[in-house]
Amino acid sequence: MTWTPHATVAVVVEDAQGRFLMVEEHSSGRVVFNQPAGHVEEDEAILDAVRREALEETGWEIEPEHFLGLYTYKAPANGVTYYRFCFIGKARQQVTDELDGGIIAAHWLSLEDIRQLGDKLRSPLVIKSIEDYRNGRCYPLDVISDSQT
Asked: Is the overall model pTM greater than 0.85, yes or no?
């Protein structure tokens, strides 16, 4: 049997008031909160996946500005290993209020509000990536070499 990890992207977006763009969604029968995130599609450039997922899940056009890091997570609920390419992005403009199926709403939340969500966070990577961002972790986007771009 072949092991098949899942390649995903996520983006940490902070506004001028110090709030973070979050997605409230249904997942495995629960309502959870996450950064805009999702799977990279076949033949899709990673940075294009970041832009697409953010738009589909929040209605906001996001521009990736830095690479935050690669995070690995094995979900206890399904045993799937996720490789999460996480970015730091800037919100350009909200262009739609139509969101992907399974998405309840997009929210701008303070770090304290996010911490208070506790087990409603989709994974521990939600807080980990925000903390890494707040600690100044960032890399230039050219650390990603993508033949699609």
From this structure: yes
